[in-house]
Amino acid sequence: MPTISHLEALEILDCRGIPTLEVSCVLDGHMRGNATAPSAGTRGPLEVSELRDADEARHRGQGCRKAVALVEGEIREALVGKRFGDQAALDKALRLLDPSAERARIGGNTTFAVSLAFARAHASLRGVPLYRHFGDLIAHSPARLPLPLLAVHSFKPSPAADRGPLGLSVIPSDARSIDDALSFGMDLRRSSEALTREKFDDRGGLAPDGGIEAPFYDTSSVLHHAELAVRACPGERRDVEWVLRGNGTRRYDAGYYRVDREKLTAKEIADRLLTIIKRYPIGVMIDPLGHEDWEAWVDLTARLPASTLTAGDDLFATNLVRVEKAVTEKAARALVVKPGQTSSLTDAARTVRFARKAGLVLIVSARSGETEDDWITDLAIGWGAEYLQAGALAGSERLAKYNRLLAIEKKTRWPIYRRMIEPR
Fold first, then answer.
1. What's the longest Cα–Cα distance across the chain?
2. Residue 235 — pLDDT band, cuts 50, 70, 90?
3. Which of 285, 291, 343, 368 makes an SS bond possible with 41, Cβ 3.0 to 4.6 Å?
4. Residue 322 pLDDT exceeds 60
5. CA 165 distance to own-chain centroid
6. CA 110 to each of CA 14, 77, 195, 318: distance values in angstroms, whole numbers, following the listed order
7. Which residues, including other chains, have CB under 8 Å from residue 64's CB and lie 6 or more apart?
8. What value does the mean pLDDT of the chain take?
């Protein structure tokens, strides 16, 4: 039963230049674990709160000095010198400091960073890889690698983007290994950049997740462009599936969705998506609808072919109660897991255990505000996720996750996830 010997924190900058928190936890006087807390570009309505300084004169109010002070003050006083047998015991102690569901006083970013640092230190103390330690949290023995879900075209969260086309990612469905998947992903990115330059006289900007930004008019034009980019890749033409990222909650306004510069009802959105599926191999739709439009989710999921997954991100916010409701009503087929949407690893693990038992496909996802910390890769493997969504193959904060996946592949020689796809 390890004892927390020391706890400290540091305000650092994420990939957007926005402050976040790094926590260092020392167990039994010698085993240290460091971890950073990623954050979202826009916090979903169901996520726990983040503790920010609200000092507009510094980082426009986004500073994390208050969180640092909490870790090195109240939280250190409550935890240092105490023994914790497992992750659940540590996270329970954190919850007692702020029992509110939103963690409004202490901040979910604060507690999650401490929770994660403890997990990393505990894994080292046990002498096991971090992915194995994560697997033990849900009684799962990992033996497979997740398939990378790679962002291709993305759009910054803004009113203009909310009216535009859906974001697009690629699933290299026929990849034989992580190396194969990433090699194809880079070929696709280069060919897409070249076609974007040719079409718009510009290679396109970079979205927060590293995806290419370009002034496409609608979702069909993005898909057509991506299809041409696949054909332009060297070697044999690859079998791929596409992921549509809808951001449905941000697009919803007074009973309508703003998509492709139009105002559409939920039924019209569903009809349009079904038309797109007839033309393109869409494997996953993430948040095509708003997080409270339950009836529309149920209807869309029922109408889609079994080969297409409806995946809830804002719909679930990695929340057990929301996932239980979706399973009961058959509102979605996949769960996007973002552990930082909760206040601790234990909260996220509880949701994942239920989702796995219920048969939901798991997409473990990074956030838009990432650092070069690669723990999310270990978590995706340890929790048996089918997919890892870490953004595009651009930026060290994204590539660190995929490089970790390559390293684990070399060490374990585990197979990559392959989904059985029904003929379309």
1. 62
2. confident
3. 368
4. yes
5. 20
6. 15, 15, 43, 18
7. 11, 19, 20, 21, 51, 52, 53, 109
8. 94
Task: Read off the tokens for 110.
Answer: 């604060």
Separation CA 316–CA 135 (nearest Å): 22
Locate 158 and state its tokens. 């803004």
Which residues fall within 8 angstroms of residue 228, CB to CB, at 6 or more apart?
Answer: 195
Q: Please give the structure tokens belonging to residue 260.
A: 């492709």
Q: In what order do the strands lie in the sheet with 252-253?
A: 252-253, 256-259, 262-264
Q: Helix axis angle, 375-382 relative to 396-412, nearest 10°?
A: 40
Distance CA 326, CA 159 (A): 29
Task: Tell the burial category of 288 from Cβ atoms under 10 Å away from its Cβ (0-12, 13-18, 19+).
Answer: buried
Return the number of other C-beta atoms located less than 10 Å from residue 139's C-beta. 9
- Tokens standing for 137? 């949290």
Residue type, 46: L
Structure tokens belonging to residue 248: 């449905």
Two structure tokens written together for 258? 């703003």
Beta-ladder partners of 336: 363
Interval 350-381: pLDDT, tens: 999 999 999 999 999 999 999 999 999 999 99
Compute the distance between CA of residue 282 and CA of residue 227 in angstroms, rounded to an integer: 12
